Amino acid sequence: MTEPGIFSLLWVLIALPLAGAAILLFGGRRTDRWGPYLGVLTVCTSAVIGVLMLLGLMALPAEERSITQTVYSWIAVGSLQVDFALQLDQLSMVFVLLITIVGALIHIYSLGYMAHDPDRRKFFGYLNLFVAAMLLLVLANNYLLLYVGWEGVGLASYLLIGFWQYKPSAAAAAKKAFIINRVGDVGLSLAIMLIFVTFGSVTFGEVFGQVGEASEGTLTAIGLLLLLAAAGKSAQFPLQAWLLDAMEGPTPVSALIHAATMVTAGVYLIVRSHVIFDAAVWAATAVVVVGLITIFMGAIIGSAKDDIKKSLAGSTMSQIGYMVFAAGLGPIGYIFAIFHLLTHGVFKAGLFLGAGSVMHGMNDDVNMRRYGTLKGLMVITFVTFMAGYLAIIGIPPFAGFWSKDEIIHAAFERNALIGVATILAAGITGFYMTRMIAMTFFGKARWEEGVHPHESPKVMTIPLIILAIGSTLLGMALLFWGNIESWLEPVTGFASEPTPFPTWVYIVVTLIVVIIGAIIGWVMYARRPVPIEAPRGSWLTRAARKDLYGDAVNDALVVRPSFALSKALTIFDARGVDGFVNGLAGSVGAISGRLRRTQTGFARSYALSMVGGALLVALALVLVQS
Question: Per-residue DSSP letters for 533-580?
Answer without folding.
Answer: SPP---HHHHHHHTGGGHHHHHIIIIIHHHHHHHHHHHHIIIIIIHHH
